Amino acid sequence: MKAQDLLNQYAAREWNFQEANLASVSLSKVNLSRADLSKADLSRADLSQADLSGTSFHCANLTNADLTGADLTGANLTEANFIGTDLTGANLRGADLSGADMRCANLHGANLTGANLTDAELSGADLSGACLKNATLAGACLVGADLIGVDLSGTELPEEQLNGEINPTGISHNWVSWNGSC
């Protein structure tokens, strides 16, 4: 699907884009709030500074996508693939990232206040300067993640999660096709 086709359909109040092939599309600064992009392929897509609040990306492929400065407030990002994705400065306040694969993602300065990161794979991710106030991190793997300057106020983070005792291999059970490295 081409970017303009998607935008035309969205403008006509058609919000279901499940399983759409949007690899490498440029959707910078667009408004796709509350759209359903479940299981869509958005690998290498440019969604920088886009309004994606309340959007569903359940099981979507966002490998190496650009989401810098994007608004993902309250978005459903469950079991999505964010491997190598740039989320620098993104607003993920209240987003559901449970089961998401975020290996080597750049979340520098991202707002993850109240986000659900249950069972998320964050090994090798850059979380430096991110805000994780009141976030849920139960079962999340943070092995090798950069946590310098992270605000974890109100967040329970057992020591074993930092040491890799919960998921010491850092291997995703959902996505096995990524060929990159951290």
From TrEMBL:
Chain coiled-coil ranges: none
Lineage of producing organism: Bacteria, Bacillati, Cyanobacteriota, Cyanophyceae, Coleofasciculales
Protein name: Putative low-complexity protein
Organism expressing this protein natively: Allocoleopsis franciscana PCC 7113
One matching Pfam family: Pentapeptide
Signal peptide segment: none
Matching SUPFAM superfamilies: Pentapeptide repeat-like
InterPro entries named among the record's database cross-references: 5peptide_repeat, Pentapeptide-BTB/POZ_domain
Gene3D superfamilies, A to Z: E3 ubiquitin-protein ligase SopA
